[in-house]
């Protein structure tokens, strides 16, 4: 342990040391490609800490996420591509450029107007960089599938290509279910594509109902784990194992878990 109060400069120096010839063999071995998965993992752990309102954990996870920025900036510096100061310069300039209502003459914009202006400036930047391309290219292809589906739909909605009633989306979902059934019966090779269509439609329904699809699915995952843990605990209490339990027995315990979740807390 140490009482030293570290600074950002210290962090950059520590990372440079870890990547040096006398540093850590694991850190020296890493590349942009090998670190990509860690960026995603750390971002998810940040969102998990936010969801659980564990702010001490959030502080730690934000540090882990910052490490990925510093780590990759050091690799880029070694390859003569850019360094951490370039990263800071780029994001600072972008923030100033995209907030003319704060740093320029524009004032009094509503949050909705700010959002629209942000997207307009982004589009102008893409044209300046020679990335005008297609309208949907403004949505990153590197996003997780669920988040990208929602962003693609919101992008299409900007030009009026959208449903105007959640009930219409429900009708479309029923059509997609029928198409899965038909593919399952007659063209099994088409099943993955049809399931993808259903998932895309489900995200669309969530969007129209103002439901955060990522958060909704995360909560359902946690609910499933919680109820399945109840099944396992009850099975063990009966001197059995999950493998030796029948589906009907586990289904009964699942219903029991559902009932307990709906019960008032016991003092």
Automatic annotation (TrEMBL):
<dbReference type="GO" id="GO:0046061">
    <property type="term" value="P:dATP catabolic process"/>
</dbReference>
<dbReference type="GO" id="GO:0046081">
    <property type="term" value="P:dUTP catabolic process"/>
</dbReference>
<dbReference type="GO" id="GO:0046052">
    <property type="term" value="P:UTP catabolic process"/>
</dbReference>
<dbReference type="GO" id="GO:0046047">
    <property type="term" value="P:TTP catabolic process"/>
</dbReference>
<feature type="domain" description="NTP pyrophosphohydrolase MazG-like">
    <location>
        <begin position="30"/>
        <end position="103"/>
    </location>
</feature>
<dbReference type="Pfam" id="PF03819">
    <property type="entry name" value="MazG"/>
</dbReference>
<dbReference type="GO" id="GO:0047693">
    <property type="term" value="F:ATP diphosphatase activity"/>
</dbReference>
<dbReference type="InterPro" id="IPR048011">
    <property type="entry name" value="NTP-PPase_MazG-like_C"/>
</dbReference>
<dbReference type="GO" id="GO:0006950">
    <property type="term" value="P:response to stress"/>
</dbReference>
<comment type="similarity">
    <text>Belongs to the nucleoside triphosphate pyrophosphohydrolase family.</text>
</comment>
<dbReference type="GO" id="GO:0006203">
    <property type="term" value="P:dGTP catabolic process"/>
</dbReference>
<dbReference type="GO" id="GO:0046076">
    <property type="term" value="P:dTTP catabolic process"/>
</dbReference>
<feature type="domain" description="NTP pyrophosphohydrolase MazG-like">
    <location>
        <begin position="168"/>
        <end position="230"/>
    </location>
</feature>
<dbReference type="InterPro" id="IPR011551">
    <property type="entry name" value="NTP_PyrPHydrolase_MazG"/>
</dbReference>
<dbReference type="InterPro" id="IPR048015">
    <property type="entry name" value="NTP-PPase_MazG-like_N"/>
</dbReference>
<dbReference type="InterPro" id="IPR004518">
    <property type="entry name" value="MazG-like_dom"/>
</dbReference>
<protein>
    <recommendedName>
        <fullName>Nucleoside triphosphate pyrophosphohydrolase</fullName>
        <ecNumber>3.6.1.8</ecNumber>
    </recommendedName>
</protein>
């Amino acid at each position: 342990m140490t009482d030293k109060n570290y600074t950002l400069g210290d962090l950059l120096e520590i990372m440079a040391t870890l990547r040096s010839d006398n540093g850590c063999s694991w850190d020296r071995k890493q590349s942009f490609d090998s670190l990509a998965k860690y960026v995603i993992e750390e971002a998810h752990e940040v969102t998990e800490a936010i969801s659980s309102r564990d702010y001490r954990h959030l502080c730690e996870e934000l540090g882990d996420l910052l490490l990925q920025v510093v780590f990759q900036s050091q690799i880029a510096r070694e390859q003569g591509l850019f360094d951490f100061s370039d990263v800071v310069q780029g994001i600072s300039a972008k923030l100033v450029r995209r907030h003319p209502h704060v740093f320029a003459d524009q004032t009094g914009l509503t949050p909705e107007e700010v959002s629209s202006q942000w997207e307009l400036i982004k589009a102008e930047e893409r044209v300046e960089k020679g990335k005008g391309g297609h309208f949907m290219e403004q949505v990153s292809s590197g996003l997780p599938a669920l988040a990208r589906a929602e962003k693609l739909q919101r992008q299409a909605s900007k030009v009026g290509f959208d449903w105007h009633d959640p009930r219409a989306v429900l009708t479309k979902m029923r059509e997609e279910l029928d198409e899965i059934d038909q593919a399952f019966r007659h063209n099994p090779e088409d099943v993955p594509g049809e399931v993808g269509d259903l998932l895309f439609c489900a995200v669309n329904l969530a969007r129209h109902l103002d439901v955060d699809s990522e958060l909704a699915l995360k909560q359902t995952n946690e609910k499933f784990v919680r109820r399945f843990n109840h099944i396992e605990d009850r099975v063990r209490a009966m001197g059995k194992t999950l493998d030796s339990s029948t589906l009907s027995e586990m289904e009964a315990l699942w219903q029991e878990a559902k009932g307990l979740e709906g019960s008032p807390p016991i003092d």
